[in-house]
Write a structure and sequence with these properties.
InterPro entries: Ribosomal_eL13 (IPR001380). Residues 1-27, 247-269 are annotated as: Disordered. This is 60S ribosomal protein L13. Pfam families: Ribosomal_L13e. It comes from Penicillium freii. This protein has helices at 5-14, 36-46, 72-90, 106-109, 121-127, 150-166, 184-195, 206-209, 217-220, 236-248, 250-268; strands spanning 101-103, 113-115. The termini are far apart. The chain is mostly helical. Residues 5-12 have low confidence and may be disordered. The chain has a domain at 81-216. Strands 1-2 form a two-stranded antiparallel ribbon. It is 45% helix and 2% strand.
């Protein structure tokens, strides 16, 4: 006896193990099939960071997208011309900004120092430079950086003060000198030098005028003779242990002495 079409249709729709429409059939043991959107979402979440895309069977015709640098001499020339044009446009100002001295992160590199992004608000305040004025006079500011040591604060404040001492600030309006502006003689001398096409005594790059240097291994390591070493303390460890014991048993000993004194006073009565 054959099975009718209605019975087959009912069996297909009522079977819970049959994958519903829009899902990918996956071999499983007693569990319902996983919908296709969930699989796509899980795959999308699995790819993290700047790693290689797995199983990337793409046909992108990469031969047409190979980047070549046949114009290297021309680019080099254009970059040089752009640097010269920028220096002429911003003259007599330098082409770069003053950057702080920061220590490189991680244990591997923290013995070195380099140029940071900008000075902190605390460093500017210590040097007496308003934070809104600093970017207008060639000082980079980074409000996110924090001073975690006094040494970095002192070093960058000294760097700012040295820059401030060498800075020649022109008035906004010609002839109207204000509090922070340089003297008329200094401004006149700089204008005369620039008019002649010279840059004598005028910094074109702040990086070269205020260099950031690291100590070499030869400078960092010095020879010390045994005779020049200071004489160590006698029985230092024993004294440390005695001091710890004294602090530990101080209350107990005071209580014992007080009890003894009270007993002696009671015996005399």
């Amino acid at each position: 006896m054959g099975t009718s079409f209605s019975a087959v249709k009912e069996d297909l729709t009522s079977n819970p193990r049959r994958p519903p429409p829009g899902s990918i059939p996956i071999r499983h043991h007693g569990a319902l099939p996983i919908p296709a959107w969930k699989i796509q979402w899980s795959i999308r979440l699995a790819i993290k960071h700047n790693n290689q895309i797995q199983k990337n069977h793409f046909h992108k015709d990469w031969q047409r997208r190979v980047r070549v640098h046949f114009d290297q001499p021309g680019r080099k020339h254009r970059r040089r011309e752009a640097r010269i044009a920028k220096a002429a446009a911003v003259a007599p100002r330098p082409v770069d900004k003053l950057r702080p001295v920061v220590r490189c992160p991680t244990v591997k590199y923290n013995r070195r120092v380099r140029a940071g992004r900008g000075f902190t608000i605390a460093e500017l305040k210590e040097a007496g430079i308003p934070k809104k004025l600093a970017p207008t006079v060639g000082i980079s500011v980074d409000h996110r950086r924090t001073n975690y040591s006094k040494e970095s604060l002192v070093a960058n404040v000294a760097r700012l003060q040295d820059y401030k001492a060498r800075l020649i600030l022109f008035p906004r309006k010609s002839g109207q000198f204000k509090k922070l502006d340089s003297s008329a003689e200094e401004v006149k001398a700089v204008k005369a030098t620039v008019a002649e096409g010279k840059r004598d005594g005028i910094a074109t790059r702040v990086e070269a005028t205020f260099p950031i240097t690291n100590t070499t291994a030869a400078e960092a390591v010095t020879e010390v003779k045994r005779d020049s070493l200071p004489k160590g303390e006698e029985a230092a460890y024993r004294r440390l242990r005695d001091a710890r014991a004294e602090a530990r048993y101080k209350g107990m000993r005071e209580k014992r002495a007080k009890t003894k004194a009270d007993d002696e006073a009671a015996a005399k009565k």
